[in-house]
């Protein structure tokens, strides 16, 4: 028992983390919490098993039950996204992106992409997965006022550069992207359009954002733990049906990009939890996505009224789960730390014009988790007051934190999920 105290230390810190979030306002746009059924999957025997390959074609024995789970997960994913192809094996959204890049583009070939300062995700940037693949990245022009890709400029760029891929991956995702126009230009020059839906996957599945596969995207990747509230993981979907030699080759490349491309075994317990999250989203996703967006819009409007610089004002601030604040040159990190001390969990973020991602000038806020615990528009207005007290009025962080703890008391139950057999479930407990 020499090392038991060290193990107990880890357990205690995990419990401290649970208690911290129980009494705070979790507003990081890329985070969410698991339903009890999803969470149960993570402690099943699946967590330590291997299943390299595909159902019925494994490198290991003992997969007969997991094969049924993965087949059901793919079936539910296809129904959820109204598509003909789904791969639930990627272990993260970035892993899904890496698989797509490995499948569809060679080192040195060009791809057009959004710049990181304008809201791109790092996996499509010069420090991320695209760089690992050695891709020649060329940035789209950007419309700061509309917080979106400059459509006319991007179309001209695609036709001029003739890239292999037109990438649409965003970490700041306030408004739908102009996929139809970009896809038409990409297809004209023989390129594929890749849509990274990491942040907005649940909004798309809930039919409240945009429909990339119907708008022309050839393939869509995503994270399964943001607006789609499942376990941490990734997925790939496409509407290519494999009914032509070209389509068959395309889908074969995607599958090969995942395995053996960037995964070995792929966290079987997470696949089971993904399947349950898909079923729950088929049941509750439309209502959940609607409320997420209503909450984000209410929060943005309230923050604006309290004197904050909220981006996207021209188009109503946001049509997603996110709100972007400009705090002041290089002040994002300082503001996020002050908010954390006050019981509000956010993240610093670059805004248009920023050059240093470690010293950005903005904050990115999200409403998925607040919505998941039952908050609505009225609560967003109250939260804007907490922001004002912390960042503008400079009130005591300790006092604000106490007030937020009291505010959270009535919001400790998960919504938009199956509860049969889990009444009174406390998702902040370790087990």
CATH class of the domain at 39-277: Alpha Beta
- Report how far apart the termini are: 23 Å
Strand tally, please?
17
Mean of residue pLDDT values: 94
Widest sheet, order of strands: 4-12-11-10-9-5-6
Describe the biggest sheet? 7 strands, mixed
Class of secondary structure makeup: alpha/beta
**Given the C-alpha coordinates, what overall shape results?**
globular
Poorly predicted tracts of residues: none
Topology of this protein?
Elements: H1 4-22, E1 25-26, H2 36-41, E2 53-54, E3 57-58, H3 64-81, E4 85-87, H4 93-104, E5 110-113, H5 129-132, E6 136-139, E7 142-143, E8 148-149, H6 151-161, E9 165-169, H7 179-188, E10 192-196, H8 201-205, H9 212-215, E11 219-225, E12 229-238, H10 245-262, H11 268-305, E13 309-310, E14 322-326, H12 332-341, E15 344-345, E16 347-349, E17 362-366, H13 368-372, H14 377-392, H15 397-408
Parallel strand pairs: 1-15, 5-6, 5-9, 9-10, 10-11
Antiparallel strand pairs: 2-3, 4-12, 7-8, 11-12, 13-14, 14-17, 16-17
Helix pairs in contact: 3-11, 4-10, 6-7, 11-14
């Amino acid at each position: 028992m020499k090392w038991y105290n060290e193990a107990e230390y880890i357990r205690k810190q995990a419990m401290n983390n649970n208690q911290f979030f129980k009494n705070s306002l979790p507003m990081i746009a890329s985070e969410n919490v698991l339903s009890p059924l999803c969470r149960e999957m993570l402690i099943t025997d699946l967590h330590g098993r291997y299943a390299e390959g595909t159902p019925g074609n494994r490198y290991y024995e003992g997969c007969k039950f997991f094969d049924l789970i993965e087949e059901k997960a793919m079936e539910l994913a296809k129904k959820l996204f109204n598509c003909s192809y789904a791969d639930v094996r990627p272990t993260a959204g970035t892993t899904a992106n890496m698989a797509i890049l490995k499948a569809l583009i060679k080192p040195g070939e060009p791809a057009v992409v959004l710049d990181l300062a304008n809201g791109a995700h790092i996996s499509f940037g010069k420090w991320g997965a695209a760089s690992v693949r050695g891709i020649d990245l060329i940035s789209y022009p950007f419309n700061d006022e509309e917080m979106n890709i400059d459509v006319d400029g991007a179309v001209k760029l695609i036709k001029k550069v003739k890239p292999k891929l037109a990438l649409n991956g965003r970490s700041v995702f306030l408004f739908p992207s102009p996929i139809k126009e970009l896809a038409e230009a990409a297809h004209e020059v023989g390129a594929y359009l890749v849509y990274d839906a990491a942040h907005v996957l649940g909004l798309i599945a809930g039919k409240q954002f945009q429909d990339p596969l119907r708008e022309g995207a050839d393939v869509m990747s995503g994270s399964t733990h943001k607006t789609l509230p499942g376990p941490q993981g990734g997925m790939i979907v496409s509407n290519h049906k494999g009914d032509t030699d070209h389509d068959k080759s395309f889908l074969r490349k995607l599958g090969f990009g995942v395995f053996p491309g960037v995964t070995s075994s792929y966290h079987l317990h997470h696949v089971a939890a993904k399947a349950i999250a898909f079923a729950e989203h088929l049941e509750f996703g439309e209502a959940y996505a609607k409320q997420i967006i209503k909450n984000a819009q209410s929060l943005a409007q309230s923050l604006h009224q309290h004197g904050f610089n909220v981006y996207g004002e021209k188009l109503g601030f946001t049509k997603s789960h996110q709100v972007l604040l400009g705090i002041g040159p290089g002040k994002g990190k300082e503001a996020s730390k002050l908010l954390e001390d006050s019981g509000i969990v956010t993240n610093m973020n670059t805004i248009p014009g920023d050059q240093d991602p470690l010293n950005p000038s903005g904050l990115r806020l999200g409403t998925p988790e607040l919505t998941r615990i039952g908050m609505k528009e009225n609560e967003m207005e109250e939260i804007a007051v907490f922001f004002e007290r912390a960042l503008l009025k400079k009130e005591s962080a300790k006092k604000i934190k106490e007030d937020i703890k009291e505010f959270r008391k009535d919001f400790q139950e998960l919504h938009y999920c199956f509860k049969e057999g889990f009444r009174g479930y406390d998702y902040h407990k370790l087990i």
